[in-house]
Automatic annotation (TrEMBL):
Keywords: Glycosyltransferase, Membrane, Transferase, Transmembrane, Transmembrane helix. It comes from Paractinoplanes ovalisporus. This is Glycosyltransferase family 2 protein. It is found in: Membrane. The chain crosses the membrane at residues 265-286, 292-313, 334-352, 358-378.
Length: 389
C-alpha cells in the first residue's frame, strides 16, 4: 500500500476573522464524484445535479482516473454548467476509487461533502436531502442507505450473484465492525454526506471501493444518521468492480481490522502453512520412498518449500514493495533467510528424532513452526522494509 503525501488536516479551519459575518459566497456543499471512464454519464449527471441543488452555494469536484476522454467531456460540460465544476485528473490512480474520493475531499471548500458515483445509480435528487438531514439532526455523517426503511437495492444490483456478494459482504462487515456500525445499515454505500469539520483526511488510508467504511472506522464521526434511497440501474457504461477489486476489499478489511503489519503477518502465516504441504510431501518422498537419510532429505525438502513460499510472498504479499530490490536480491536473501533456520532446525530435528524418538514428519513440523515467527520478523523488518517512495 502506498501512503499518499498529506497536505495536513482540514479540520476546524476558521475562515475569516472573529466578529466578521461568513462570506456570502461560502460553499454549503461540495459534491465529490470519482470517475473512471464515465464519458456518457457526465452530461446527464450534471443536468440532474443542477436541477437538484442551488448553484450559488454548491460546487462539484470530479476526481478522474480515466483512460478515455472523460476529462475532456467534463471540461466541456463544465463550461456551460451553472454550478462551478472542478476537475482533478490523477496520473496515478493511487488507492483506486477511495483514493480519488479522499483527493476530492481535500480540494473541497464546502461545509458538507457529498460523495456520489457518476453513473446515476445514486439519484442526484437525494443530495439535498442528505445535507438537510445532517443539519436537522446535528449529524457528522449521513449515509445514503439501500437497506434502511424506504430504501431499496433491487433495481441497481442486477442478478442474484451480485445481490449475494453485496449482501454477504455487508453482513461480514457488519459483524467484524459491529461497534462502529451500530447505526449503519449500508456500510458499503458509495453515497454519503460528511460534515467537513468532522473529517480528518490525514487519518485515512483509502484502498479501493469502500471509502465509507474507511471513514467510519478511522475518523469515528460523532452522530451518524441514514437516508433511504433506491439504488438505480446504471445510466450508461459498465461497472468497474471486478474480481481483483474483491481481493482488494478483503485486504482492506484485514488492514482495517488488524492493522497493516498484523494483516501481512496473517497472510505470511497462510503462505507458510501452505508451504508445509510441499515440505512434508518432499520429505516423505525422499525419506520414506527413496530412502534418503532424514537430515539431507529435510534440507532438500526445505529448499523446495522455500521456493514455493518465495513465489507466493513475492507475488501476493509484497507485490507493491518489489521495486525496492532486484529479483536476484530478493530471492537470494529470501533463500538465505528461509534456509538459515536449518542451522537451528537440523540440530533440533536430530534431537527430536534420534534423541526423543519423535517421528520424522512430526519432528519436522515442530521445528518449522518454531522458525516461522522468527522468519516473519526478519522478512518484514529487513528484507521488505517499508520505505518512503
Ligand atoms: N477516480 C476513480 N478511480 N473512480 C473510480 C475508480 C477508480 O479507480 N473505480 C471506479 N470509479 C468510479 C466509477 O467511475 C463510478 O463513478 C463510481 O466510482 C462507482 O463505480 P462503479 O463501477 O459504478 O461501482 P459499482 O456500481 O459496482 O458499486 C458502487 O455502488 C455500490 C453501492 O452504493 C460503489 O459506489 C460501491 O462502493 C458501492 O458499494
Ligand atoms: Mn455503479
Amino acid at each position: 500500500m502506498t501512503i499518499t503525501a498529506d497536505p495536513g488536516p482540514v479540520r476546524a479551519t476558521m475562515r475569516g476573522t472573529l466578529g466578521e459575518l461568513p462570506v456570502a459566497t461560502a460553499v454549503k456543499q461540495t459534491v465529490v464524484v470519482p470517475t473512471y471512464n464515465e464519458r456518457d454519464n457526465i452530461a446527464e449527471l450534471l443536468e440532474r445535479l443542477v436541477a437538484a441543488l442551488p448553484a450559488g452555494t454548491t460546487e462539484i469536484v470530479f476526481v478522474d482516473d480515466s483512460t478515455d476522454d472523460t476529462p475532456a467531456v467534463i471540461e466541456a460540460a463544465a463550461a456551460t454548467c451553472p454550478i462551478p465544476v472542478k476537475l482533478i485528473h490523477r496520473e496515478h490512480a493511487t488507492g483506486g476509487l477511495g483514493g480519488a474520493v479522499v483527493e476530492g475531499m481535500r480540494a473541497a471548500q464546502g461545509e458538507w461533502i457529498v460523495v456520489m458515483d457518476a453513473d446515476l445509480q445514486h439519484p442526484p435528487s437525494v443530495v439535498p436531502t442528505l445535507v438537510a438531514a445532517g443539519q436537522r439532526d446535528g449529524a457528522d455523517l449521513v449515509v445514503g442507505s439501500r437497506y434502511a426503511g424506504g430504501g431499496s437495492s433491487k433495481a441497481g444490483l442486477d442478478g442474484g450473484y451480485r445481490r449475494l456478494v453485496s449482501g454477504g459482504s455487508t453482513l461480514v462487515t457488519k459483524v467484524i465492525f459491529r461497534n462502529n456500525l451500530l447505526q449503519v445499515s449500508d456500510p458499503m454505500s458509495g453515497l454519503f454526506a460528511i460534515r467537513t469539520s468532522s473529517l480528518e483526511t490525514s487519518e485515512l488510508r483509502p484502498l479501493g471501493y469502500k471509502i465509507l467504511l474507511e471513514l467510519i472506522v478511522r475518523n469515528r464521526p460523532g452522530r451518524i444518521v441514514e437516508v433511504p434511497y433506491a439504488f438505480q440501474p446504471r445510466h450508461a457504461g459498465e461497472s468497474k468492480s471486478s474480481l481483483s477489486e474483491g481481493f482488494r476489499f478483503l485486504k482492506h478489511l484485514a488492514i482495517l481490522r488488524f492493522g497493516a503489519k498484523r494483516a501481512r503477518m496473517l497472510v505470511f502465516a497462510l503462505i507458510g502453512v501452505s508451504g508445509l504441504l510441499p515440505n512434508q510431501a518432499a520429505l516423505w518422498f525422499l525419506h520414506a520412498v527413496l530412502g534418503v537419510h532424514y537430515v539431507p532429505a529435510a534440507i532438500l525438502a526445505n529448499l523446495i518449500a522455500v521456493g514455493w513460499n518465495f513465489a507466493l510472498t513475492d507475488t501476493l504479499l509484497y507485490r507493491d514493495r518489489r521495486q525496492h530490490r532486484s529479483f536476484a536480491g530478493r530471492i537470494s536473501r529470501f533463500f538465505v533467510l528461509g534456509n538459515a533456520d536449518l542451522v537451528l532446525r537440523v540440530p533440533l530435528l536430530a534431537l527430536l528424532v534420534s534423541g526423543l524418538h519423535v517421528g520424522v514428519l512430526i519432528a519436522n513440523l515442530v521445528t518449522l513452526l518454531i522458525s516461522f515467527v522468527v522468519r516473519f520478523l526478519i522478512l518484514d523488518g529487513v528484507i521488505y522494509k517499508a520505505r518512503r517512495p
